[in-house]
Design brief:
By secondary structure, this protein is an alpha/beta fold. The chain folds into two domains: 2-99, STAS domain (Transcription Regulator spoIIAA, 2-Layer Sandwich); 142-375, no CATH class. It is 70% helix and 9% strand. It has 13 helices and five strands. The protein has a five-stranded mixed sheet, with helices on one face.
Length: 377
Amino acid sequence: MIESQPEGRITTIAEAEGNRVALSGRFAVRDVMRVRGVLSDIAEDRPLVLDLQDADWIDTSIAWAIALKRQRLEAAGMRVSVTGASEEATQLLATVTEALPRPEPEPQPARGISPMIEALGRNVSAGFATLAETTGILGLFLHRLFRSVVHPREFRLTALVHHCEAAGLAAVPIVALLSFLIGVVLAFQGATQLRQFGAEVFVVDLIAISILRELGILLTAIIVAGRTASAYTAAIGSMKMREEIDAMRTLGIDPASALIVPRVLALVLMLPILGLIANISGLLGGALMSWVELGISPAMFRTRLVDGTDVSQVFVGLVKAPVFAAIIGVIGCQAGLRVSGTAESLGRMTSSAVVAAIFAVIVIDALFSIFFAQIGV
């Protein structure tokens, strides 16, 4: 096959021992696409000979096309040879070939006990740094809250009401539904086990203590951690990506007072209310299943609930709510402030905030349980 052009000619010959491409005439940058097209059509499963004996002159672009084809063939294990090239063309091809980008080899993962210890140390150090940063954000919230009390005109009531609605009122349906279902499950499982001992009536005590003391507020806090902490991180992180926080500082607006205080305070105010709603919904679900499964009427359930459950169980559960709320809000705001300028960072910090908030809630709940057990409550 022969392809004719005014300035240069390319001849491709399929020989027994491989393919041959001969260039004759002058080739400049205007011919690079033509040369690349011819070279791309040549199969890469046979050796290749590039004959430049009749090539009067080639420029850097043509040398680049030849070097690229040679690189691909050699990567496939085929032999490539250049014949008849002038000293200038040979030097040009060598220079261009040397300048071609080469993929860097992937670093091999380090093996042995030392890299594991190093990774553990880095993770522990990062954990302590994050804990210190979270403590700093908590202190910043308390300081700005105290300053708002001293200077009421700095307090942003409108933002507080908005976040109370978003974090509290909007969460009522999901909290009530899940708590109701938890009460149903507790009553059903308790009835199944206690029926074996003829102690079905104690299922009321099981439901009351489990929901009022632990599950009601813990489940609510976990729902709020997944729902609100991620929302706080996404909102503040998006503002940081758009440099709105820097603009607030430029305008003399304190980001902590405008962004952190209303969000965290809204959670502190609304989480006890959500916990109370969860308790009521859980008891209703337990009462309904007790009536269906055990024949315990609502009046009997209420009587047993009042007689067998102390009001202190309610306060043991609800006293945790402000602590849970403060930690969830602070973690969500801190993660938002750590977002860099990429969408990937925003997604990563949102996921990190949810995981950290749920983990912190469970750890604090365990500490509360140990504390109440020690003081006999």
